[in-house]
Design a protein that fits this description.
Blueprint lengths: L1 H27 L20 H16 L13 H23 L3 H17 L6 E2 L5 E2 L2 H21 L6 H24 L6 H20 L8 H20 L12 H4 L1 H9 L1 H16 L12 H7 L4 H21 L5 H20 L4 H15 L5 H5 L11
Antiparallel strand pairs: 1-2
Helix pairs in contact: 1-2, 1-7, 2-3, 2-7, 2-8, 3-4, 3-8, 4-5, 5-8, 5-11, 6-7, 6-8, 6-10, 6-13, 7-8, 8-10, 10-13, 13-14
């Protein structure tokens, strides 16, 4: 555990320094777009935070390669190299989109190619708990892996609309997933050092180093580049864990704990995945592209209900923590205790989410709305001409 903490700390320090440098350079060369109608922020802010996160990731992984304890992880370096290459490609696509607005086909093509490349490099979902443990065919494994990678990347990108939201959700979800992958490695092998835990450790560190600059009011956003990289790392860490499980060593009574990694990413991303699904249904019903941008995401709705920016972010954190920690509890306690904890936690989160706005909040919101009426038309009108089926964060 000490070496994981060390690598995570290195990633945090490097990411912090790199993010500071990106902030300075972005303002010096005015590398930031104007304010869009659907944006929550009101001051032009750089969206290149993904660069700082990526630098932290790469440096930390390079340092880990020189530590003998991680030699088993680097014994076959090709999958890790493929992951880094895929992350860099997604960063480049995201940064270009943040600066110049790429068309949706280019973004989707890039995501599909990266997912396919990772599957070709051996980063695949290799088995599923169907009728025991079923080893997947190469074709099915390829398709599921690509779909999982693309889905998680876009789900993370969808919720990147409030300061500190994606970074904080990643720290909570990633922290829980790191605990799981670490314990799984100890219980199924002779060493605690594995690729999934290493990837999650450096992602947690890099995200933690970036968060101080992204906390409200944010000095920089992670943008599409950062959101896509974070989503990619969350996805491939999950996919990688399936390769740690020896089907012969897992009996029927252990199926749920053994395949929590397949459930956990969808559990911790339940809010962004819900947001994604509602957005697709909403836009199809309105006759729009299912991925066209609008101002009706869950975080927009929380603000409209009267929650402050800070409270809205904390609500997302709460939902993520309840589902992620509750899912992990199935490994340690009887299923009914874990389920009871999840139900109680979700009930509390529901009450907090729908708690009526106070009079002061309603008056402030009403004043803000009246002040903005003269500057903008309706959100629906401003988004009708959107040509970006793959949502651009912020």
């Amino acid at each position: 555990m000490t070496f994981y903490v060390l690598i995570g700390l290195i990633a945090a320090i490097v990411s912090f320094g790199a993010s500071w440098g990106v902030v300075k350079l972005s303002h010096r060369f005015k590398l930031y777009p104007g304010i869009r109608d659907r944006d929550v922020h009101t001051t032009p802010t750089p969206r290149l935070g993904g660069i700082g996160i990526m630098v932290g990731l790469v440096v930390a992984l390079a340092v880990a390669s020189q530590i003998s304890w991680f030699r088993l992880v680097y014994a076959d370096p090709f999958p890790l190299i493929a992951i880094v290459i895929g992350a860099i490609v997604m960063l480049i696509i995201g940064v270009v989109d943040d600066l110049y607005d790429l068309d949706w086909l280019t973004k989707l093509a890039g995501q599909l190619l990266v997912g396919g490349f990772l599957a070709w490099a051996g980063v695949q979902i290799v088995s599923l708990p169907i009728g025991g443990i079923t080893i997947l065919s190469p074709t099915i494994s390829l398709i599921l892996t690509v779909l999982a990678v693309v889905l998680v990347m876009n789900a993370v990108n969808f919720i990147d609309g409030l300061d500190g939201l994606v970074a904080g959700v990643t720290l909570i979800a990633g922290g829980v997933f790191f605990i799981y992958s670490y314990l799984l490695a100890i219980n199924t092998s002779q060493t605690a050092f594995n690729l999934a835990s290493l990837l999650m450790a450096v992602l947690l560190g890099a995200t933690a180093g970036f968060l101080p600059f992204n906390w409200h009011p944010a000095k920089i956003f992670m943008g599409d580049g950062g959101a896509l990289v974070v989503g990619l790392l969350l996805a491939v860490s999950t996919v990688t864990v399936t390769g740690q499980i020896d089907p012969a060593a897992v009996d029927a009574s252990q199926l749920l704990p053994a395949f929590i990694p397949l459930l956990l990413p969808f559990a911790v991303l339940v809010v962004p995945l819900l947001d994604f699904g509602l957005a697709v249904l909403r836009r199809l019903h309105a006759g729009k592209s299912p991925f066209s941008a609008d101002r009706k995401h869950l975080h927009h709705r929380l603000l409209e209900m009267g929650h402050s920016h800070f409270h809205a972010v904390l609500i997302f954190y709460g939902w993520t923590a309840v589902v992620a920690i509750g899912t992990l509890m199935f490994m340690f306690v009887a299923w009914w205790w874990a389920l009871t904890a999840i139900i109680i936690g979700l009930a509390v989160c529901t009450v907090v989410t729908f708690w009526p706005a106070t009079g002061a909040q309603r008056r402030a919101l009403s004043t803000a709305d009246s002040d903005s009426d003269s500057d903008t038309d309706s959100d629906t009108d401003s988004d009708t001409d959107s040509t970006h089926p793959l949502e651009t964060s912020r």
